[in-house]
Q: What sequence folds into this?
């Protein structure tokens, strides 16, 4: 026994008639609609994924993400090889890149350890290294020893300021 579904259709004269359509035809329409929906939902996120601006290069140790563009900056995270990065800034010499990780952590990495897919010189300069420069603090014993050595050199005829 074949199952049929009645579907209302409008004639050219404006009257509504009911037409019989086999249920199997409706099943095919539903399957096609379902497949189209699944494809649309699958393809859309693929298009939304962007190529990262930079990728961490593989090396023996993980790359340090620092809070400042200096080797003295605090380590915010250790980045795995091939981790995608979004470049949001750089230093004037492009040695340090200000990046954002996929986990939305922002910090600085040395550009030598990342592969960039963009023109880094087009990225805005976001750090003034001169403003970050601070003399390294020396222990008092080291300072005293340097002064003693300089004084001894001056007593022996060494010109001041020349080492």
A:
């Amino acid at each position: 026994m074949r199952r049929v579904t009645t579907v209302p259709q409008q004639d050219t004269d404006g009257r509504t008639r009911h037409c019989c359509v086999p249920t199997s035809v409706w099943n095919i329409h539903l399957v096609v609609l379902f497949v189209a929906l699944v494809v649309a939902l699958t393809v859309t996120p693929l298009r939304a994924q962007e190529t990262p601006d930079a990728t961490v290069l593989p090396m023996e140790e993980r790359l340090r993400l620092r809070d400042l563009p200096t080797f003295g900056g605090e380590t915010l995270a250790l980045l795995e090889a091939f981790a995608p990065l979004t470049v949001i800034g750089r230093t004037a010499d492009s040695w340090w890149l200000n990046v954002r990780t996929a986990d939305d952590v922002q910090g600085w990495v040395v550009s030598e350890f990342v592969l960039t897919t963009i023109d880094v010189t087009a990225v805005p300069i976001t750090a003034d290294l001169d403003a970050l420069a601070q003399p390294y603090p020396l222990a008092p014993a080291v300072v005293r020893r340097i002064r003693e050595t300089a004084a001894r050199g001056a007593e022996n005829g060494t010109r001041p300021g020349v080492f």
